[in-house]
Amino acid sequence: MGSADFSSIIMESLANDDRFEVAALFTQPDKPVGRKQIMTPPDTAICAKRFNIPTFQPEKITVETDKIKELKPDFIVVAAYGQILKEEILQIAPCINLHTSFLPKNRGAAALQTHILENDDYAGVTAIWMDKGLDTGDILGTVFFRPDGCAKFNCLLKHLGYQAANLTKTVILDFESIKPLKQINADATYAKKLSKEDGLIDFSSAKKAYKKFLAFYPWPGIYIESGLKIKEATFFDLDSSNKPGEILEITDDFVKVGFEKGALLLSRLQAPSKNEVSAIEYIRGKRLNVGDILV
After folding, report:
1. Is the whole-model pTM more than 0.85?
2. Please, which residues have CB within 8 angstroms of residue 121's CB and are 6 or more apart in sequence?
3. pLDDT for 207-249, tens place per residue?
4. Quick one: pLDDT at residue 121?
5. Alpha-carbon span 151 to 201, nearest angstrom
C-alpha cells in the first residue's frame, strides 16, 4: 500500500525479486495535477502497470477489506499511503510500515522534511509493525546513512526508498526471528503536515532559509513576503553580516543576496503569476543593481 515515488521504489524492488510475489497494490485515486488539472495516477499505479500488478484505488481503504482478505497476504507493506488502516485490516496479516525517520522521533506526515530542518547528520528509515496509533508500532528494523551529496528532499527521499526496499526484504525474510522493540513514547516527537504557508522565509538567517529550501523542494517551495519564489539556491556563507535582502553581487550565473546573518546565491526565481526565470533575468527586468534590495 502506497502512493509516492518512495513507495514505488519499494514495490519495484519486491516485484523484481523472485523470492517475493506482489499480489496487489492499494493506492490513492488519480488526482488532478498542474495548471491544466490533468488526472494523473500515483507513482505506484504507474509502476504496478509495468509489472501487471492488480491495482485498487479506493477513496477509503476500508471498502476493500474483503478484497484484501481474499488475497490472503502473508504481509501487508505500507509506505507513504496517506490513509489510516483500521483494526480489521491490521488483523489480516502483519502490516509493515516504512517511515522516513528514526522513530519515535518525527512521527507523522512530514517526517523527512522535519528531519532536514533539524539539520541532523544522518537520515534513515524505520520499519514498524503497525498498530492503531500514528507511527507507534513496535520497531522491526532501522537503517541509516549520512546523506552526503543528496541534500534536497526529493533526492534524499529517493535514496531512502532504496534503503527502505532492502530493509523491507530483510524484515520479511527474517520476520520470525525478529524481536520487536517497543517505542519509548516519552521520547516521541511529531512532524506536522505541511502547507504552502510553511515556505515563507525572511532575511534573518541564510542557514535557516537554505534548510527550508532543501526541506521543501520541490513542494511547497520557499518564497519571501512579496510572493517572489526562490526556485534554486546555493548556500554561500554563514557568518557575514548584511542588510536584509541586499543584492551583494551579480554574475551571469547567480545573484548573491545578503541576510542579517550569512548569504545565499540565487539562480532561479519566479515572481507571482509569472514564469520561472534565471535570477539575472529577474533583476534585469526589475532594473535592480548591487546595493538594491531584492524585493
Report:
1. yes
2. 146
3. 999 999 999 999 999 999 999 999 999 988 988 999 999 999 9
4. 80
5. 19
